[in-house]
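Reviewer comment 2.1 asked that we show a complete input and output for one of the modelled complexes. We chose the magnesium ion case, as it is the one discussed in the main text.
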Amino acid sequence: MQWETVIGLEIHAQLATKSKIFSGASTAFGAEPNTQACNIDLGMPGVLPVLNEQAVTMAVKFGTAIDAELGHRSVFARKNYFYPDLPKGYQISQFELPIVGKGHVEIVMDDGAVKTVGVTRAHLEEDAGKSLHEDFHGMTGIDLNRAGTPLLEIVSEPDMRSAKEAVAYARKIHQLVRYIGICDGNMQEGSFRCDANVSIRPKGQEEFGTRAELKNINSFRFLEKAINFEVERQIDVIEGGGKVVQETRLYDANKDETRSMRSKEEANDYRYFPDPDLLPVELNDELIERVSGSLPELPDAKRARFASEYGLSAADADQLTTSIDVADYYEQVVKACGDAKLAANWMNVELTAALNKAGIEFDQSPVTAELLAGLLARITDNTISGKIAKQVFEAIWNGEGTADEVIEAKGLKQITDSGAIEAIVDEVIANNPQQVENYRNADESKQPKMLGFFVGQVMKASKGKANPQQVNQLLKEKL
Ligand code: ADP
Ligand code: MG
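Response of the prediction step:
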């Protein structure tokens, strides 16, 4: 039997507001447990929640960015359930009338294929607290700092057909929320969380199979692994004569497997009803227009512009528009050094490799756009060769100064004085009579390859500083 995978994602993006969604308590990460939850976050008797306007603005930003229908009237609802990290017994969320309605995003696969993924809705809600199992023996600690932190839950259509598509979609949403500045995207700290709904069906069948919802996925790599594991599990279940049950499963990254956590609740188990303490939200056109006017250039538009304006390959344009910071850095370097292709290569190869090696993020790079541009300018004006430039880059990375300072201090300036190069060439020819004879006796078709030996010797003798074009030229003449 040929099986087809069906995936829909529920993404929780923590909105980057300073205070909580219904109270003035701080949302800063990492505070001492239970120091940032106030009476409103805990739902103490008699408190009144007040909606944070920033959270609404951010949701509208997102809706505009995915070209969604915006709910002109949306309502907060209570989702009732019991859990130790939710002492008030209900979560304030949105149910029937979410703030963001149907929208869509485009994903690009490795082979260049473009696919549109539907977003069903995105709604505002508050986060719950956290159960802490480590550091407690036979007990669980409860930290309520996170209670009341604003979340935007982004629900996709079941449009993805492979783990790779699901990852591409999740990455796209991740990129988008960071571009528009509504979420810091930090997956380790839980500011961007992904639940994957996975089912399979016989290829060609229209009706969906029963889905399992996978939780506890905190990286894109694990998202892909968790889905692939789950698909294999479901195939085994069905081909073994069993049935997939609708349930929530936990992904265990250490064992690379999913295991059952609880059977899935139906919506009516939650007894949703409109929160009597909160007024419905009415969005007016003026607000929507103001927000859409404040959006930056979005990733798709930027990628297309980079490809056409700077003549970049699709892969280069993609990599250089990963984030607004990377894109701005690139444009600064191009402006200062004048060579778009060279700037793209240095960022995507040398700089990326150095960042990976040091295990640091782009925004921690010790080489600023200005420093990199200064280096590239010395390549384009032939002060140094591309090879020496790598050495200079390393010195700049280590804080030894600007390109000009490093070139000066280490005496790395390219030798372009033809008299000086000629002297080295003559010396190399004099020192290698046997190779010279071989070269001269060789077939013309073999000579270019043999020339490499002499070029290497000259470069070595000049400590890599001789201008390679001149060296080639002179050697050909003299040999
Ligand atoms: P719930 O609120 O119970 O989780 P939803 O209807 O909100 O249910 O759907 C949650 C997610 O599950 C959505 O992203 C949707 O696309 C996805 N989904 C629904 N049915 C399936 C299915 N059969 N296979 C895979 N994903 C599905
Ligand atoms: Mg849901």
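The mean pLDDT is 94. We note this here for comparison with the apo prediction described in Section 3.2.
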